[in-house]
Design a protein that fits this description.
heterodimer, A: 469 residues, mainly alpha, two-stranded antiparallel sheet, two-stranded antiparallel ribbon, 25 helices, 70% helix, 2% strand, B: 387 residues, 15 helices, 4 strands
Chain lengths: 469, 387
């Protein structure tokens, strides 16, 4: 039975899901707030990164406006589920810009108005949250369609800049008096119910939905069309793909899930503020995509895990240490760089193994370590120095290195699959298959196919036409 | 046709000014004159930054996302230099050594090697001038401007060398993502090095003092910066134009912008040309950074200081036609006018809330419109990708 691959994969997937749920249960009951936050943040950012991957990785359009879509979804969700008392508190504040119309944007009122009293009750907050997320996602999708239209005319960097401009324009416009009545200007809303964004069940449930949709989409005819656009737009068009429709569709779907992620993000933080939706968010997702694998859903999840890990557990990087400690670390890093390059070059049999570039590197490393060790008692080196921004520096250096050495990311475009772990080894081609390949790819052999003497070309044995009887 | 459009626009502006003056006498020549001068000043700053975008794009077709952060580095380096003037002797000598090395490095680009007599002489002179200038506070701003230009120029070349050069020939998306990563690196490095705080930027200078002159109907109050900024910009732009049109390296730059491969076959050292482009662009951005600080009296947190000017200047470059030097200047000045003069034409009145709050979005909206209507910009040639 287990020889049947489909059955084996289903069993393994279900077992994996069960294990994941058990782990989530453990996380929830571990009593560690940090662990729960890490899990929830991973799920929220995972949704956003996987959805950005649909445009950036699968369709091959570099879009940088994801934080704008998240803002739309986040604000709509926050507005729709804000409890009535919080709403009144906000609107009564002296600097508030909320008006009557915004006060009316309230799912509770709407449900009461159509007679669904149960849905307006405090117990049904979860249902309202889902409805609000959906509406937020829809509005974000509308924005996605608007942003998607320039993609029909523009390509490459121009398009990237336009999406960035849209993303920033959404944020800047939200702070102007025009939209201030909806967004309450720079103050935003405090008191958004935060039990959903912090709960691993809500966030991971929505992540599962997103991953399911995205992975099914990737291998559907739509996904093939999108990947065709990534590889060669003109060829895709020639093969009958309606590129405009597909590109705008990709933007709309991606923006929808970005809106959902925005709603969860707002709920995680507990407030909806403009400075939650800086370009930094898109940058983190970009790192996750580039790191894990452009176009690969599982790869993006891997990248997100790393980004969230660095963000949440990177505090030691930014704490204050004596200057000599920083110097020692920097010197050791330099040394490691030089020695690593030396090891790599020796393994690859590159000569000279000690490339001239490595000398100053190694000397600098030794010198800096020596200064740190010998001068640890010096007044100047004892001074403590805080490494603010170290995490982002680490991530950006990582991104640059990845872009230089492996632009397609760790997993590349391939997905994680059970065959990787439990499948057979990739078989070695037989002599016969090699001959066939050689025949197919060698034009010269092709030309000689008509040679009357078959013994002169043993490779052609399989390529010969069957004799006519 | 363009002349007709310009004439109609000017007529509309004049009509609007006359109307506003009729409604409220406070909107007089001094009001609009001040807005005009400030727009020109801001536009010059945008133009200086936009030149960097346009040159890099023209040569390697890369939108240098990190250019706004280079601008930030320029401003903070200048602050670092002038805020300590007058220096004590040891510091003056130490900083001067750094400045002289940077100067020699820059000069070495033109002469080919660092041991060239001209380069050595230049370095020695730069060392002397730097030591003297660091000992006196009078010309602190000027010395900060010049030395920050050199330091930032070297930073730009380093960025190219470390991050962009390994990616020559890589897909353009990879290069763009790397540029974003570099911009993040510089932002956070700025936080690390300068702390993320708004910093006062007030060198002791005649230029930051007040300037007033009589106009028909009143007195116009402003600072001398409205004179200095366009002046310095004009000098730098003329120097850049001369460099690009009159020198061998400038000719090589133009050849590389036309067709890098052919230029390489004709004996142009393309890597050196690209490094020069980054050098010049970063130097101009640094000059803009210093004058930005002097104009507004403070420089923002390193994390956000470069973003808005950077993206606006990029918008300016696109509006003018990216890849074209006059286009960048035209686009920058145009954007300055949109931000300052246009808002002065729709001021806050009793019945109208004004449009000042929206001025940051003008650049984005104009960018989007230009890209949708005429991606090649005002004076740019058609850059649509070949199939």
């Amino acid at each position: 039975m287990l020889r049947d691959r489909r059955f084996r994969n289903t069993v393994l997937t279900l077992a994996g899901l069960g294990l994941l749920m058990f782990l989530l249960y453990l996380v929830e009951n571990s009593g560690s707030i940090k662990l729960g936050e890490v899990a929830a943040l991973f799920a929220i950012w995972g949704i956003a990164a996987v959805s950005l991957n649909l445009i950036n990785g699968v369709t091959g359009i570099l879009s940088l406006g994801h934080h704008g879509f998240m803002l739309v979804g986040g604000y709509v969700t926050a507005l729709l589920i804000l409890p009535q008392d919080t709403r009144e508190l906000i609107s009564r504040s002296a600097r508030s810009q909320m008006n009557e119309f915004t006060l009316g944007l309230n799912l509770q009122d709407w449900f009461t108005a159509v007679g669904l009293d149960w849905l307006a009750s405090p117990e049904a907050l979860g249902v309202r949250f889902v409805v609000a997320l959906f509406l937020g996602g829809l509005l974000a999708a509308l924005f996605g369609i608007i942003v998607g239209f320039p993609s029909l005319r523009l390509r490459g960097d121009y398009l990237a800049i336009v999406t960035f401009a849209f993303g920033e324009a959404i944020r800047l416009l939200a702070s102007t008096p025009l939209l201030g009545s909806f967004t309450n200007g720079a103050l935003g809303f405090a008191g958004v119910p935060s039990q959903f964004g912090k709960s691993v069940w809500w966030t991971f449930g929505l992540l599962a939905v997103t991953v399911f949709v995205m992975s099914r989409l990737k291998f559907s005819s739509y996904g093939r069309a999108l990947q065709g656009i990534r590889e060669d737009e003109v060829a895709a068009e020639a093969m009958g793909v309606n590129t405009s429709y597909h590109k705008v569709l990709a933007f709309a779907i991606s923006a929808f899930f970005a809106g959902v992620a925005g709603g969860l993000w707002v709920s995680w933080v507990g407030t909806a503020r403009l400075d939650l939706f800086l370009f930094t968010l898109t940058f983190y997702f970009l790192v996750a995509i580039s790191l894990g694998g452009t176009g690969s859903v599982t790869g993006v999840l891997l990248g997100t895990a790393l980004v969230v890990f660095v963000r949440q557990y990177g505090d030691p990087l930014e704490q204050s240490y004596a200057l000599s400690t920083w110097l020692a670390v920097a010197g050791l890093l330099l040394l490691a760089l030089a020695l690593g390059a030396f090891a790599y070059r020796s393994l690859q049999r590159l000569r000279p193994a000690w490339h001239p570039v490595l000398y100053p590197l190694a000397f600098a490393g030794i010198a800096v370590v020596a200064v740190a060790l010998l001068g640890a008692d010096l007044n100047a080196l004892e001074r403590r120095w805080q490494g603010f921004g170290m995490r982002a520096i680490l991530l950006s250096v990582l991104l640059i290195v990845i872009m230089i050495f492996r632009p397609s990311g760790v997993l590349g475009r391939s997905e994680f699959s059970w065959a990787w772990l439990f499948g057979e080894r990739k078989d070695v081609p037989t002599e016969e298959e090699r001959a066939q390949d050689a025949w197919l790819s060698n034009a010269e052999l092709n030309e000689r196919a008509d040679d009357p003497d078959p013994a002169a070309h043993p490779l052609l044995e399989r390529g010969k036409k069957p004799k006519e009887q | 046709m363009p002349w007709l459009v310009a004439a109609v626009l000017i007529a509309l502006v004049v009509w609007r000014m006359a109307y506003l003056h009729q409604v409220n006498p406070a909107f007089d020549v001094a009001f609009f004159g001040g807005a005009f001068l400030r727009s020109f000043q801001l536009g010059s700053l945008y133009a200086l930054i936009a030149l960097g975008y346009t040159m890099v794009y023209g040569i390697i077709r890369l939108i240098n996302f990190a250019h706004g952060e280079v601008f930030m580095v320029g401003a903070f380096v200048a602050y670092f230099i002038f805020s300590r003037t007058p220096y004590t002797w040891p510091w003056a000598v130490l900083v001067s050594v750094l400045v002289a090395v940077g100067f020699m490095y820059v000069l070495g680009f033109w002469r080919g090697r660092l041991t060239d007599p001209l380069v050595l002489t230049g370095g020695a002179l730069a060392f002397l001038a730097s030591t003297l200038a660091l000992r006196s506070a009078e010309y602190g701003w000027f010395w900060a401007l010049v030395s920050s230009m050199f330091v930032t120029g070297v930073v730009g070349v380093l960025i190219d060398k470390v991050a962009y050069r390994p990616l020559r020939g890589a897909p353009r998306n990879s290069m763009l993502i790397t540029a974003i990563a570099v911009s993040f690196f510089l932002q956070n490095f700025g936080i690390l090095a300068f702390t993320n705080r708004q910093t006062p930027f007030r060198p002791d200078s005649f230029w930051t003092g007040f300037l007033q002159f009589n106009v028909p109907g009143g007195t116009l109050f402003t600072t001398w910066m409205v004179v200095l900024v366009p002046l310095v910009t004009a000098v730098l732009v003329i120097a850049l134009t001369l460099f690009v049109t009159r020198t061998r390296l400038g000719r090589a730059m133009r050849a590389t912008a036309q067709d890098a491969e052919t230029a390489q076959m004709m004996g142009v050292n393309v890597d050196r040309v690209i490094a020069t482009t980054f050098l010049l662009g970063s130097m101009l951005a640094a000059a803009a950074g210093v004058m930005w600080g002097m104009t507004f009296g403070s420089i923002n947190q390193p994390a956000i200081f470069g973003i808005l000017p950077g993206i606006k200047a990029f918008a300016a470059a696109v509006i003018g036609g990216i890849g074209s030097l006059p286009g960048a200047v035209i686009g920058g000045v145009l954007l300055g006018f949109m931000e300052n003069f246009l808002t002065s034409l729709f001021p806050r009145t009793a019945s109208f809330p004004g449009i000042t709050e929206y001025k940051d979005t003008f650049a984005f909206l104009l960018l989007i419109v230009i890209l949708l209507v005429k991606p090649s910009g005002i004076v740019g040639e058609d850059l649509s990708e070949k199939v």
